[in-house]
Amino acid sequence: MMLFSRVRGLPVLTPGEDADRVGEVRTLLVDGAPWRVTQVRIGRGRLRRGAVVAWNALRAAGPDMLIVRPAGGPEEMPPQRELLGSRVLTECGEERGTVLDAAFDPVTARIEAVLTTRGELPPDPLLGLGDHALVIRSGAAHHGV
Amino acid sequence: MNGLTSVRALATLPVVTLGGDAVAHVKDTLFDTSAGRIGSFTLTGRTLLSGPLPRELPWPAVHCLGRDAVMVRDAGALCDLPRSAARRDAVRGRLLGARVLTDDGETVGTVLDVLVEGGTSGRLVAFRLAAQRDLVHGSRHRRHRVYVPRGEAVSLSGRTLVIPAHARAYVSDDLPGFTARVGARHDRGGGVAP
Predict the structure, then answer these.
(1) Would you tell me which of A40, A101, A136, B117 could form a disulfide with B121, CB atoms 3.0–4.6 Å apart?
(2) How far B12 CA lies from chain A's nearest CA (Å)?
(3) Chain A contact for B121, CB < 8 A?
(4) Cβ distance of B70 and A93 shorter than 8 Å
(5) Mutating which of B13, B17, B68 best tests the A interface, going by the most A Cβ atoms within 10 A?
(6) ipTM score for this prediction
(7) B128 with B115: CB under 8 angstroms?
(8) Domain A2-68 grouped into CATH 2.30.30.240
(9) Measured between CB atoms, which of A81, A91, A129 is closest to B71?
(10) pLDDT tens across B136-182, in order?
């Protein structure tokens, strides 16, 4: 299990003897149904534009670095949302804090828990993530932090 | 959630789909006074300068009315507003500022605010009035902002709201007092005023 906050800032390398450094992880983008990490946004320094790499294009995701396949360049995918920092809203229209962090399985890329300012949420009650909020089912109980 | 919500507080609330996207903001709440509940919402765009949208959100399309957002299933819940109907309904269904009379013809005051039930009900529960002096209990120097329950019959003609005369028995100048009185009345099986 990995945390979004731990992955941020990790170096992204291409395999091989020279092990070129592509950049470092800025953030992970997620998509719903099933909830999983779909893309990695990579920062490549101040003067260069960032890149977005699909999670499937990674060859390995370790605790110290991500290794990307050489051919896995930026590809077109539907827009995904950033989970961290988004507002949490129940389907009854009541705010339930903001998302602080999320845990996911680095092999399957599935999200296993979402940590909010009001406690931890399993992935089942998540309904949708849009530009305004992460919508959850009303009955979803927060486990204490 | 079935708490009471003030209609003035609904203005500027975002309209959010279950997918988490904000599609509009609430501009005004229009009432269906014959059904005694919210009829529809008029909308503005999402940015400060975007102005009113030529669309409305009818109450049946609302998934849930909450404290922090009006939830809809998807963006298809908004429907285009026929231009001719827009202005007429806006005048007829907007209760704020309407003159309030009892059914024996006495002027009570004007409507400052309307309390509705949240959640999926949208029921009109009470009016907050700027009351005239003869409604006030106690000190004459108090501000006459009182709550009056909806009562059994509401009729609305133009910008005038008529409430039953017995509703005046439940007048209360604070919200907790009001909910207690109305609750007691419901417990007695909706009998007439004490």
Answers:
(1) B117
(2) 14
(3) no
(4) yes
(5) B68
(6) 0.80
(7) yes
(8) yes
(9) A91
(10) 555 555 556 777 777 655 676 657 888 777 766 667 667 777 777 66
Residues 6+ apart with CB under 8 A from A79: none
> Cβ contact (<8 Å) for A128 and B18?
yes
Domain edges within chain A: 2-68, 81-136
Residue B172 in tokens: 């209360």
Taking an 8 Å cut-off on Cβ atoms, the answer to whether B19 and A129 are in contact is: yes
Q: Hey, which residues 23-82 in chain B have their CB within 8 Å of chain A?
A: 63-71
- Which of B1, B10, B17, B71 should one mutate to test binding to chain A, selecting the residue with the greatest count of A CBs within 10 A? B71
What is the pLDDT of chain B when averaged over all its residues? 77
A8 reaches B (C-beta below 8 A)? no
Rounded mean pLDDT for each run of 10 residues along chain A, 145 residues in total: 89 77 87 85 80 83 81 60 89 92 90 92 89 86 57
pTM: 0.80
Summarised one tens digit per residue, pLDDT across range B97-130 is 888 888 888 888 888 888 898 888 888 888 888 8
Comparing CB atoms, the residue among A94, A128, A131 nearest residue B22 is A131
Query: Helix/strand/coil (H, E, C) string of B118-164?
Result: CECCCEEEEEEEEECHHHCCCCCCCCCEEEEECCCCCEEECCEEEEC
Q: H helices within chain A, ranges in order?
A: 4-7
Lookup: tokens for A37: 């990490």
Any B CB within 8 A of A76 CB: no
* Confidence tier at B192 by pLDDT (50, 70, 90): very low
Amino acid at position B138, single letter: G
What is the dihedral angle through the alpha carbons of A99, A104, A108, A109, rounded to the nearest 10 degrees?
40
Nearest to B21 among A93, A131, A138 (CB): A131
Q: Provide the 3-class DSSP secondary structure of residue B60.
A: helix
**pLDDT computed for residue A112 by the predictor:** 92
Decide if B134 touches A, using CB distance below 8 A: no
> Going by CATH, does the domain composed of A81-136 fall within 2.30.30.240?
yes
- CA atoms of A86 and A128, how far apart (whole Å): 12
